[in-house]
Amino acid sequence: MNRRMDPHAGGFFVPAASFAGAPLDAIKGAAAVLMVGDHVDTILLDGHAVALWRLGRIAFPLFCVVSVLHILRGADPGRYGLALLALAVPTQAIYAAAFPFGTTEGSILFTLATGIAFATALERGRPPLRHAALALGLAVVFLAPALAKTAVDFGLAGILLPAAILLALREPRAYGAWLVAAIVGLNWHGWHPRGEAASLSALADAATIGVGVPLVLLAALRLRGRPRFLPPYALQAFYPGHLAVLIALRALA
Q1: Model confidence pLDDT, tens digit, residues 33-43
Q2: pLDDT per residue over 54-82, tens digit each?
Q3: Burial (Cβ within 10 Å: 0-12, 13-18, ≥19) of residue 84
Q4: Dist CA 84 CA 94 (whole Å)
Q5: Which of 41, 60, 194, 236 qualifies as a FRET site for 95, CA 20 to 30 Å off?
Q6: Distances in Å between the alpha carbon of 237 and those of 92, 100, 170, 210, 226?
Q7: Rounded CA gap, 67 and 59, in Å?
Q8: What are residue 152's DSSP bridge partners?
């Protein structure tokens, strides 16, 4: 069987099963650390630590990769999405307290749940439908920012990214360009550091993701064959927990 079409295939012709155990935990850990740096900058430092913020752009794509790897390794997409929603709903209040925009948009947990549902649905479609859906979605991302907000963190671009990752891992030549476009669009109309031109800043974000994500994946693969080291449900507890701590630190300051 062509490895690109194998349900256990992964990017760079590395089987997704190679990330089982310690490698997947390493990716989760890296994403969590980068996310904390981003949130420290946003919640405590008012966006002045640009390096923390820029490195934080890598976190969400890594979480998307983790979700896609779970699906490639056989996780039921419906149950996986429901598990994300089961965490997203009770933790939304903490997210809303942490960020000023949290009262008008859902956290990345909602984005990931929606993105995985869209990715698995799109994967079942024929290639013309896949390309048309990605083209239309990305056109909205770049040309209609108000429509692309979609009431979740990272908006429509964040919902499209898991699908672009999944399809690009399946067939890199056919869908690699869509993945690049989705990465560029992820921060195209988002917040940018003071003094940076929006388009150049978004391209810098995309370059950071384009370099950072493969480096994390390659580093994680060095742990191939080793068992998990994170406790079960560690990230599920860590996500609301770290936000609660940062909210408390902001109140004390």
Answers
A1: 999 999 999 99
A2: 999 999 999 999 999 999 999 999 999 99
A3: buried
A4: 16
A5: 194
A6: 14, 22, 32, 29, 23
A7: 13
A8: 106
